[in-house]
Amino acid sequence: MGEFTPYAKQAFLASPPLVVAYAIAGTIRFDIERDALGLDASGNPIYLNDIWPSDEEIDAVVSQHVKPEQFNQVYIQMFKLDETERAKSPLYDWRERSTYIRRPPYWEGALTGKRTLRGMRPLAVLGDNITTDHLSPSNAILATSAAGEYLTSMGVPEEDYNSYATHRGDHLTAQRATFANPKIVQRDGERG
Length: 192
Description:
The protein is built from eight helices and two strands. The chain is an all-alpha fold. It has a two-stranded antiparallel ribbon. A hairpin with a 5-residue loop joins strand 1 and strand 2 (about 45). Helix 7 packs antiparallel against helix 8.
């Protein structure tokens, strides 16, 4: 799907235990609920329910290792404001050349007027199994992509491109990401 890397032809999202189960099996081409993942040292089949943790096991690990102070160390500090910060405006200080979050022009000037739905045309006519990740990918930005070329023009070094997901707050980067998934292919003779 290109969600993680634009070079992948297929990608799947799975919980960590499922990732381990498929890794044990060495394939995704089987019925994970019914077929054996493999064999143990004695030659006995190992099934998903043999390795899947119970709710009690998960709760025990969470209660042992996840503590409120871990979150307090990070999040409480974020909301401690010194006196100089309190005096500032509560409104976000938009940075004009940010490639991460930029104030979009959609609610200013002529764009604030009443809009109609007349004269609209489709941007793309797509087949089945197309998701929002195909339309607005979250994978790594390639230097050769429209978004990569834009970030270069903004002075962003290639090692700092990160991913489309991190730049979605900048409408100028996000619009260059539209339809950038490798599964969306423009046919010859079609206009972009």
